[in-house]
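Problem: given the chain below (342 residues), write out its structure.
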Amino acid sequence: MSHCNISIFVPHAGCPHQCSFCNQKTISGQSYAPKADDVHRICRQAVTEVKDKENSEIAFFGGSFTAIDRDYMVSLLDAAKCYLGENGFKGIRISTRPDFIDREILDILKSYGVTSIELGAQSMANHVLKANERGHTAEDVYRASVLIREYGFELGLQMMVGLYKSSVNDELKTMESIIEICPDTVRIYPVVVLKGTKLAELYESGKYKLMSFDTVVELCSNMLEEFHMQGIDVIKCGLHASDGVEGDMISGFYHPAFKELCESRIYRRKMEKIIAEGYNNSIVKIMKCRFSQVTFAVNPSCISKALGHKKSNTEFFRKQNNVDIKVVGDEEIPKYQCEIRG
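Solution.
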């Protein structure tokens, strides 16, 4: 069964900092702060529409949930709690800042049926956090993660790739630090520069030089594969068109199928390696002729990923290697792996 979130946005409420990348109204698509009555209305409708309620959570996204006014936070939790338990939803998911997690807050969240907490880590390099005015440190992420685990919540970490002052090495350090923490889930957000943000000012002044799009795809594809190998579920990679960023975006790494681009890159790397080994070791019988065909087997659910977004891998190998690739399914092959056939 697939997980489902009943998403309720609490835009920008409670955030003590205006981070360099943040235009919360754009990301959430709204500026209206929901009230308890709105939570009841949304949840009542979801109860009738969501079939697998036992695997679904009421999710408060869009702001720093534990930093909002305490009475307001409790009123939202109290309303959501009515829809948990028998014949209701699994629990409540929230997203918040690592510096607004302590035992008092966790006691409250536990008492109202919160099951999952996602922390906006963004980077685990302190100079990157400071440059982007996050207002917390990497040490805050470690500390909050330990506490969340201690209380038995599912832990999620959110990271942002390509921030101001961040290098490829900084991104890899963040990935390694997240693996060390070992959360249950990760969200990978490549930077999108939005109108009205500090990043937009830095970009337009020339102080902020973005990595190339291809570099970020390569980085994120490596992260997807590495997190998968470590048993960490990547529940989002890239922003969706529904996140409402297209109208206010002035630069950055947005693509409506960003995750598919990254997964295609994973398979391209693996197929390139096999083809190269074939030339060197005669593993693949590629004749020195004008055109050859190679068949790869992947998990059936990954055939389109292996062929590439809009069959980009097929075109890549035709141009680069003079090879026509064919992809077939094999249930025995794990995700992100491929084998030669024939």
